[in-house]
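pinned: reference chain
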Amino acid sequence: MGAEQATRLETTHRSSQSSPRRSREFGEKEPGRRFVLDVLIVQDNRDTLEGLGCLLQSHGHGITLARGGVEARALLSVRSFDVVLSDWQMPYVSGVDLCRIARAGGYKTYTYFIFLTCFGDKEHFIEAMRAGADDVLAKPCSIQEIDVRLTAAARVIGLHRRLEAQNASLRDDCQRQFNKARTEQL
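pinned: its structure tokens
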């Protein structure tokens, strides 16, 4: 399934959302404290993929579904996401490979990367973190565990976005001062 089909799945899954949820800005809380995030879910197991999608959607998040690393890589090449929630073991492009691709991509906005995996040992945790993951959740896990991880992701993404805005403002101020200094006489 390619990026175009995944987008259709995203539209299908989002169609049951009420329009106020789609119009919220990042960091705006849903009633009851949840942050709205744009989440890419990457799983090669269709039931797990669609189940996670429905759960996260019911918690107010926008979702896009990718059936494996190849499809996720294609989606990441054309748009950004707040969070990637990825399986570890997938054919062709593993979750670790996808994480490395996401980190090497040089994207303008930060993407929070969470592994959802059956590997709960220290060695896999270290490998995930070295690949650039922000968090690792061992299967099986509850929606509450995913929810608190997404709350943490919203905090980190919010900090990154505020820093990006401050940096842009500083660059603009520096450019204005530079232009002013070039045109004013001493």
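why pinned: Residues 3-183 form a domain with the Rossmann fold fold (CATH 3.40.50.2300). The two ends are 64 Å apart (CA to CA).
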